[in-house]
Amino acid sequence: MSTLLDVVKDNPAEQRRRTLELLEEKLKEICNDKSCVLSIINNVYNPQARPYSMLEITTIGIVEQMLVKLKETDCSTLFIILNTLGGDIHFPEMLITKIRGLKFNRLYVIVPSIAMSAGSLLVLLSDGLWAPRRAVLGPIDPQLVLQTPQGPRVVPAISLKKLIEETIPRLAIEKELGKENLTKLYIAQDLLAYQAALQSLEYMSRILEREVKKRLRPEAYEKLKKSFLSDVSTHGKPLNPQFLKELDFPVTILDEDVNQDVLKLIERYDALCQKSFLFEPGLKTLIVGSRLGEIVLGVRPPQQPPQPSKPTKQQKSEK
């Protein structure tokens, strides 16, 4: 018969902590240094939570709490386990700034399953990717949220740039609209959104130039930039770790290059997070954890517009 103490010891959070502890020990053996593991796991499993499964600047302070705890243990090499659909484009740079400020020697990102958009940018800004062959990355082209009469609409910054600079001028020439009608077409556009699109694309290009270009051959860097930013056909385009490895970006394919115990522990941790998101009550968008503890963020369900109340019999008679 299980005692209360046994039940407490076997709760999911404790299982995740023990798994991270075992993973740290294995990584210390492989890297031959003081390695530590931090997890930043968004809910990519529960469809209900997906609109909220994002990396947000508001969580930076929470992540920093964990980073400070790990640094106090004399950690030198930081591994971040990352599962996310993306989020704020400034999150990766802010997180890297925190990590460098705390003077970790190296940062590696472990992607058990998926790290799209801002998650992929964090990978590119790190010292290397560790992932199984089946893991998925994605383009880092910025997405703008525009308010329309039909509600918020997500528009790729690249698409907006091409509309203003290529599509409208070409249409004017093909249809022989003339200068006056071309002017009318431009007036009808949201040029503030166009300006925001240019700024966000310039920001991403500047980060890649500063942090990634110096680490790759010129032709490899251009191919990476095209695939992740400038020639993106769809924001959901899957890019695999092998693609980065072929460009000589530092990639460790867990199925091939690492002790199998490491891969099994990463898969176990991912499965425990998935179980938590799917079966524990309440929507959760983020688990931030290490062997020292865990922070789980919840979300409020989306606000439903107020429904008009049905008139009572008395109200009907008064009308």
Average pLDDT for all residues: 86
Please describe the biggest sheet, giving its number of strands, its sense, and whether it closes into a barrel: 7 strands, mixed
- Along the chain, the helix and strand elements come as HHEHEHEEHEEEEHHHHHEHHEEH
Helix content: 40-55%
CATH architecture of the largest domain: Alpha-Beta Complex
Distance between the termini: 67 Å
> What amount of the residues lies in strands?
15-25%
What oligomeric state do these chains adopt? single chain
Count every helix, treating DSSP H or I runs of 4 or more residues as helices. Answer: 13
CATH class of the largest domain: Alpha Beta
**CATH domain topology of the largest domain:** 2-enoyl-CoA Hydratase, Chain A, domain 1
Sum up the overall morphology in one term: globular
The order of strands across the largest sheet is 9-5-3-2-1-10-11
Backbone CA Rg:
24 Å
Low-pLDDT stretches are 302-306
What's the structural domain tally?
2
What features would you describe in this structure?
The protein is 49% helix and 17% strand. It has 319 residues and is an alpha/beta fold. It has 2 domains: 9-138 and 238-298, 2-enoyl-CoA Hydratase, Chain A, domain 1 (Alpha-Beta Complex), CATH 3.90.226; 140-215, no CATH class. A 7-stranded mixed β-sheet has the order 9-5-3-2-1-10-11, with helices on both faces. β7 and β8 form a beta hairpin. It is globular and about 75 Å long. It starts with a helix and ends with a helix. The relative contact order is 0.16. The model is unreliable at 302-306 (pLDDT under 50).
